[in-house]
Amino acid sequence: MKGENDAVPSGDGRRMLDGDELGLLLLLQLKEGQGHGYDLIKDLKTRSGGNYIPSSGIVYPRLAMLVEARYVTVETKGKRRAYQLTAAGAEFLMEHLEEAHGVRARIEALRYRGSSVAAGPVGRAMQNLKTALGQKLAGEPDKDLLLAVAEIIDQAVHKIERL
Asked: Would you call 33 helix, strand, or coil by DSSP?
């Protein structure tokens, strides 16, 4: 993990976006004035055409890390938390603006994904994966199982990227 002043702190899990990328995307959104966690999630859903909807369990911890790094401030109003970019956050974002725009472009490209993947053998395989994961991870799976499943998925992603 990079130092708190060098980069957005990253998480451990492998997702569509790693922690650094999600952090940059959130900073970019906050630069544009969107301030509530729900609104940030909704914006990502819209930009991706509904193909990327990060859970609150991913977004809020990342926002908390950005607050801890002093890139963002938070003000609680009732049940809602309003986030605002700080000067340090704006400076950090400017240093990584090209990467942030690249992450946003990847998210926005997802809106064009869909119909051709949903049909045929790839769609079937994706549905089989979803079913297998749902069955295997039902209840409260232990950490070793979660790490093993994540490793298998990461290996598959790596192989597909090399095609």
From this structure: coil
Determine the residue type at 20.
D
Q: What is the mean pLDDT of residues 85-113?
A: 89
**Residue 81, token pair as written in the block:** 């938390």
- What's the pLDDT score for residue 28? 94
Place of tokens 């991913």: 58
Residues whose CB falls within 8 Å of the CB of residue 96, separated by 6 or more in sequence, listed in order: 7, 24
Which of 2-11, 16-25, 60-69, 137-146 is predicted most confidently?
A: 60-69
Give pLDDT tens digits for 139-163. Answer: 788 889 889 988 998 898 888 878 8
Q: Which of 11, 76, 9, 4 is nearest to 37 (CA)?
A: 76
Q: Which distant-in-sequence residues (6+ apart) come within 8 Å of 53 by Cβ?
A: 41, 44, 45
Tokens of 99: 């990467």
- Domain 19-112 in CATH 1.10.10.10? The answer is yes
Q: Retrieve residue 35's tokens.
A: 């301030």
Is there a contact between 66 and 31 (Cβ–Cβ < 8 Å)?
A: no
